[in-house]
Amino acid sequence: MRRGASIACQHLKIARDLLLRQREVAHYCSEGAAASSSIFINADIRPKIGMRFFSSSMTTFKGTRKDISTVDDPFDAPTYHIPEKPVTFTEGASYSVIILAGLGVAGFAAYAVFKELIFEPKEYKIFGKALERIQHDSQVSVRIGSPVTGYGSESRNRAARQRIPNRVWTDEDGIEHVEVNFYIRGPHGAGKVYTEMFKDSSDNKWKFTYLIVEIKSPSPVKLLLESYVPA
Fold it and tell me: Quick check: helix, strand or coil at residue 14?
């Protein structure tokens, strides 16, 4: 009997412990539900508050942008209303004259360059023939040495040295003559050259009328290298 009573007491104790645990679990569950509901409520409220703040900010930004876009630039307004001044006939004619004058100058310069590069002027052609004749003459080389160079004037200016003094004319028979004079220099001396050539109508070639070399240093002397003798 005692053993049965002790077993019954143990069962009652276990049942009481289970009941207490169930109450504690129910209490904890009720507190957790309340906390969860408060969390969900806060989660629902926060997006609404954020959306309201974003909406108000966008409204303020749109208003500010609208205010900025409607401001007029005080410096652009006068340029829209400047009347165009009509060009008179005199002004148009003067512009045309200036343009034509500019084209004329440009055309003349282009022609001069083209003539200088493509067509060798007659005076330079005669200068080249005379200098070549002098460079191969032993009377000159023995006095001033070799090689012999030629130039237009005794100047340090390169352009002036390249210009050859000349005279071009046509005689009564229609024959063209070219007269030039220039300076020569060699390793041992210097001199001056006087020459004239004409264009023979029979064979259309340039021929010497005369070619005179005046040696000035080291010993002054005049040399007649060419002289035309009609056939």
Answer: helix
* 166 within 8 A of 174, measured Cβ to Cβ: no
State the sign of the Cα–Cα–Cα–Cα dihedral 58, 62, 63, 64: positive
Residue 145 Ramachandran class (φ > 0 left, ψ -120 to 50 alpha, else beta): left
Q: At 205, which helix (H) or strand (E)?
A: strand 205-217
pTM of model > 0.70: no
Q: Which residues on neighbouring strands pair with residue 170, listed in sequence order?
A: 176
Asked if 149 and 130 count as a contact pair (C-beta separation under 8 A), the reply is no
φ, ψ of residue 172 in degrees (nearest 5): -70, -20
- Distances in Å between the Cα of 110 and the Cα atoms of 100, 154, 178 are 15, 30, 25
139: CB partners within 8 A, 6+ apart: 213, 223, 225
CB 152 within 8 A of CB 182: yes
Domain ranges of the chain: 122-227
Can you read off the two tokens belonging to residue 138?
A: 């032993």
> In degrees rounded to 5, what are phi and psi of residue 7?
-65, -40
Neighbours of 189 (CB within 10 A): 18
The CATH code that applies to domain 122-227 is 3.10.450.320
**Contact residues for 197 (Cβ-Cβ < 8 A; gap 6+):** 126, 129, 130, 177, 178, 206, 207, 208, 209
* pLDDT tens, residue by residue, 14-36: 767 766 666 665 555 555 544 44
Residue range 97-112, pLDDT digits in tens = 788 888 888 877 776 6
